[in-house]
Amino acid sequence: MLHYLQELFRALDVASLGDAALRVAAIFLCLTVHETCHGLAAYALGDPTAKSMHRLSLNPLRHIDWFGLLMMFIAGFGWAKPVPVDPRYFKKPKQGMAVTALAGPASNFLLALLLMLVSKVIYLYAPYSAGMETLFNFCLYTAAPLSIGLGLFNLLPIPPLDGSKVLAVLLPDRAYVQLMRYERYGMLALLLLSWFGLTGRWIGDVIMAVYGAFINLIF
């Protein structure tokens, strides 16, 4: 039995397993910050729903949708559990929903900048070690571009993505209601587009353009 276990261990690509673990950690971090900031924005605007359901938390287990996480690996994008928001608490419901929606992508862009700042501090001041190198690579090459990608993707004006709530501010109420009727089909459409590779290339180009601009800003 020990012999077979040793052979199995040799067959495993340990570096690939490490990369996968870092990617999962980055996904947890980016999704958790995104969803928590939705809840914080809603709470700041007077909606206590997320707080009452314990969603103002940096514990990723309160936010992760396991099927959505799986789809992130299979289809190239996924989702977390949506933070519950009750627009009836907002003085201006459409505007309140737009601000709440924008808080998610905005938090991802700020998180990316923070991760890049951490990587710069490591580069300039931290003594070299394998641990510091791993942290540097995680911040700069794994979590930061993923966070930017999550923020940009959610700005697409397709229900149920955050961009559709922002678009609502510009639409008459009747048009907004019509748009939201198709929310249930939006995720299916996104899955199909991603599955057939119809969104990946141009979204990737935009992500890399923004990532490059952030790199130039920090470094």
Characterise this structure:
The protein is 73% helix and 0% strand. It has 219 residues and is an all-alpha fold. It is globular and about 60 Å long. The chain starts with a helix and ends with a helix. The relative contact order is 0.11. Residues 1-6 have low confidence and may be disordered. α2 crosses α6 (130-154). The chain contains ten helices and no strands.
Summarize this structure briefly:
This protein is an all-alpha fold and 219 residues long. It is built from ten helices and no strands. The protein has helices at 2-11, 14-44, 49-52, 66-74, 93-125, 130-154, 162-168, 173-181, 183-195, 200-218.
Instruction: Please report the total strand number as a whole number.
Output: 0
What overall form do the CA principal axes indicate?
globular
Q: Which class do the helix and strand fractions yield?
A: mainly alpha
Backbone CA Rg: 20 Å
Share of residues in helices: over 70%
